[in-house]
Amino acid sequence: GGFYCSNYTNTETSKTEYLAVTQFESVDARRAFPCFDEPHLKANFSITIVADSQYRTVLSNMPILNQTVDTNNAITITHFATTVKMSTYLVAFMVSKFDYVEASWKDEGQNSWDSRPAIRVYTTPDTVEQVHYAATYARDTIDTLQNYFKIPYPLPKLDLVAIPDFQAGAMENWGLITFRQTALMYSPDHSSTYDKQRVATVVAHELAHQWFGNLVTMEWWSDLWLNEGFATFMEAWVTQALSVGGRGGFVGADVHADADTTTSSWKMWTQFQVDEQRRALNLDELESSHAIHQEAATREEIDELFDPISYSKGAALLRMLHATTQFQPTWDEAIHTHLLAHRYTTASTDDLWKTMETVSNGVVKESMASSWTSQPGYPVVSFKRTNATHVQLQQQRYLLHPPSKPSFANGHWWIPFSYVTTGDVVEVEFDSNDVFVEYAPPSVLVANVGRSGYYRVRYSGEMLDTLLATLQQHGISEGIGATATSASLSDADYTGIIDDLFSYSSNDGDDTAIRDYLKFLPFVANTDSYIAWKTALGGAESIRRRLIDTPLALRWRRYVSSLLDGHVDKFTDASAYRRVGEAGGTAHVTALLRSLQLDYAVSYGNVKATHFALQCYTNATTVDGIGGVDGACGGSVPPDLQVATFASALNGGVGVTAEVYADFLNSYKVSQFPAERLRYLQALTKVDSDELINTTLALALSDDVRAQDMLGVVVRMARRSQRAKQLAWITMTSNFERVKERLSTHVGRLFSYLAEDVTTEQQLATAMKFIADHRADLHLTERSVARIVEVVGTNRRWVGRNQAAIDDFLSAQEATT
Question: What are phi and psi of 382, to 5 degrees?
Answer without folding.
Answer: -125, 175
